Amino acid sequence: MTDIPFVVSCEWLLQHLDDSQVVIVDCRFSLADPGLGRQQYQESHISGAYYLDLNKDLSNPVGERGGRHPLPNPIELANKLSAIGVGSQKTLVVAYDDSRLAFASRLWWLLRYLGHEQVAVLNGGFSAWKKAEYPVTDVIPEPRIVTFTPDLQPQMVVDISVVRSQKDSQEVTLVDSRERERYLGIREPIDKIAGHIPGAVNYAWQEVTDSAGFILPQQEQRQRWLELGNTKEIFVYCGSGVTACVNLLSLELAGIHTGKLYAGSWSDWISYM
């Protein structure tokens, strides 16, 4: 891999396209046009890559509670991973998108939640791959059936009851990952109510990468979180538990392993208001 955990470069991936222990997953998606990502994948993707859809594969159906992207059923996701060649504790999964890791990080987090640490995101995403003129195709790869057995890590996630009871503790920092205008309630393009959870601080997920989608150096990731000091636990949320995973990746890159996902996020929080 690289000297940065959970991240691989396009150059590294090019050298491992034929590696049987590497599975590439295309996570491109558009919240505004849910079918666009799959369409883009069918037209052109990294050679050998499979597609996992945010709504259909990486989330459960929306209910009255749980937010806009509830966590997927672990067994169902495990079966889908088994069908694309992801073997428990064996296969390195490389996830990519074209949205500054917004959706690739969701898969990165989910795999670790299922107990699979062998996962990385592609630095620069599909745009960097195309710019380098590396091989793309419209050929859909055949299923590769192996066994993926989930080993759920429940300590990585919190629900609304935990957030409510602990968010004001001096040992907990609540992080809102949305852009500043949404955090402040100035603009809310998706959810019915604007604003943020009382007590939350704002660390926009877009700050983890540069404008081209490349992850900022580890030193900058560490610097970014310095103000949190020695907070015992960090609860991270966004609109629906998707882009919050970019901040959770940033925390890991910074060497901070106390981040937990409030999976329902703002869309779950406001369903109780």
In short:
The protein is α/β, with parallel strands linked by helices. It has helices at 10-15, 36-43, 74-83, 104-113, 125-131, 160-166, 180-184, 218-224, 244-253, 265-269; strands spanning 7-8, 22-26, 45-46, 50-51, 92-96, 119-122, 136-137, 157-158, 172-176, 201-202, 233-237, 259-262.
What do you see in this structure?
By secondary structure, the chain is an alpha/beta fold. It has helices at residues 10-15, 36-43, 74-83, 104-113, 125-131, 160-166, 180-184, 218-224, 244-253, 265-269; strands spanning 7-8, 22-26, 45-46, 50-51, 92-96, 119-122, 136-137, 157-158, 172-176, 201-202, 233-237, 259-262. It folds into two domains: 7-137, Rhodanese-like domain (Oxidized Rhodanese, domain 1, 3-Layer(aba) Sandwich), CATH 3.40.250.10; 154-272, Rhodanese-like domain (Oxidized Rhodanese, domain 1). It has a five-stranded parallel beta sheet with strand order 1-6-5-2-4. Strands 8-12-11-9-10 form a five-stranded parallel beta sheet. Helix 4 (104-113) packs across helix 9.
The gross shape turns out to be globular
Radius of gyration: 18 Å
Q: Mind summarizing the main beta sheet? A: 5 strands, parallel
The CATH C-level class name of the largest domain: Alpha Beta
CATH topology of the largest domain: Oxidized Rhodanese, domain 1
**Helical amount among residues, as a percent range?**
25-40%
Annotation keywords:
single chain; 273 residues; alpha/beta; Oxidized Rhodanese, domain 1; 2 domains; five-stranded parallel sheet; 10 helices; 27% helix
Task: Present the secondary structure layout.
Layout: E1 7-8, H1 10-15, E2 22-26, H2 36-43, E3 45-46, E4 50-51, H3 74-83, E5 92-96, H4 104-113, E6 119-122, H5 125-131, E7 136-137, E8 157-158, H6 160-166, E9 172-176, H7 180-184, E10 201-202, H8 218-224, E11 233-237, H9 244-253, E12 259-262, H10 265-269
Parallel strand pairs: 1-6, 2-4, 2-5, 5-6, 8-12, 9-10, 9-11, 11-12
Antiparallel strand pairs: 3-7
Helix pairs in contact: 4-9
